[in-house]
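Q: Convert this sequence to structure tokens.
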Amino acid sequence: MFFDFGAGEILGLALLAMVLLGPDKLPQFSVDAAKFVKKMRAFATNATNELKDNLGPGFEDLQPSDLRPKTFFKNHISNVLDQEDEESNKAVAKIDPDLL
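A:
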């Protein structure tokens, strides 16, 4: 989740909305806000699916959080380190203990 709202913040925003909009416009504003959030979620989902399709195979489990630079570099560095560990383990496994 992008925003970490507690109960106090939500209550404060609700009271602020009631004061600014008034009780007569608040229900319609709530409906419009819910529709906007639903459209934005659909837009984000469609954009993610289109990105997965354009990137091709190997990106089926792509998450938007994977595209953050910090996460992206962390994943790739760990992949490189894992490959180096596997290569070093292969080299150690090839040494015959009888020759030592």
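The chain has two domains: 7-59, 68-100.
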